[in-house]
Design a protein that fits this description.
Elements: H1 6-16, H2 20-25, H3 31-46, E1 68-71, E2 83-92, E3 97-106, E4 112-123, H4 125-142, E5 147-152, H5 155-161, H6 173-183, E6 188-193, H7 200-211
Parallel strand pairs: 2-5, 5-6
Antiparallel strand pairs: 1-4, 2-3, 3-4
Domain RNase H type-1: 80-211
InterPro entries: RNaseH-like_sf, RNaseH_domain, RNaseH_sf
Protein name: Reverse transcriptase-like protein
Length: 214
């Protein structure tokens, strides 16, 4: 079997590799944008053209930071998934203190699509909970999901989103409004409060975000 070409290697890396360290090293760079850059470089090499410097990535919303994304399944952005499960969580050590947001996306069969984490600096636990949700919803939209199921162990978060609790905190209101805006982009939404034990993977990502400064 002949060795793979550079073009084949770049295309494989763009599809399959999480590229966590590279995304972490360049501020504002997302996994999706990096994959796109690698795919474009492969296409350019295949055509025998010189590879140009990458353009600056554009973040879609100032309220949603660029997370570290570890893809667990070869699903490309805009692939048109029908339904995605978003497990989200947030952690703050000290409340307020060093905080991290985490989310894990799964398909309807329970297979992990992506794990996301983002270090938030010095924040409250409730702020981190909302940021975990925003990371998950933004990534679900990037993948082209039409329906979303949200699972979180924060009763406050879920009950504010379903209208049973008011949002009185001035610092949480912008995050709540951003979450509402993202939820409205899906044709069908399910919100569910779950025990912490059922949200262990998202909890792990939020704590990893703090430990590893993702």
């Amino acid at each position: 079997m002949p060795p793979p070409s550079l073009v084949d290697l770049l295309r494989h890396i763009a599809r399959e590799e999480p590229l966590t360290a590279t995304v972490r090293a360049f501020r504002g760079l997302t996994r999706e944008h990096l994959g796109q850059l690698l795919a474009e470089a492969a296409d350019t090499l295949a055509q025998g053209l010189p590879v140009s410097a990458p353009s600056e990535p554009v973040l879609e919303s100032a309220a949603v930071p660029s997370p570290t994304v570890e893809s667990a399944a070869p699903i490309a952005p805009g692939s048109g998934l029908n339904r995605v499960r978003v497990y989200s969580d947030g952690a703050a050590r000290g409340n307020p203190g060093p905080a991290g947001a985490g989310a894990v996306l799964m398909d309807t069969q329970g297979a992990v699509i992506a794990r996301l984490g983002k270090f938030l600096g010095h924040q409250t636990n409730n702020h981190a909970e909302y940021m975990g949700l925003l990371l998950g919803l933004q990534h679900a939209r990037t993948l082209g999901a039409r329906e979303v199921e949200v699972y979180a162990d924060s009763e406050l978060l879920i009950r504010q989103l379903d209208g049973r609790y008011q949002v009185k905190s001035a610092t949480l209101k912008p995050l709540f409004q951003e979450a509402q805006k993202l939820l409205k982009t899906f044709s069908k939404v399910k919100l569910a409060h779950v025990p912490r034990a059922q949200n262990a993977e998202a909890d792990e990502m939020s704590n990893r975000a703090i430990d590893e400064r993702l």
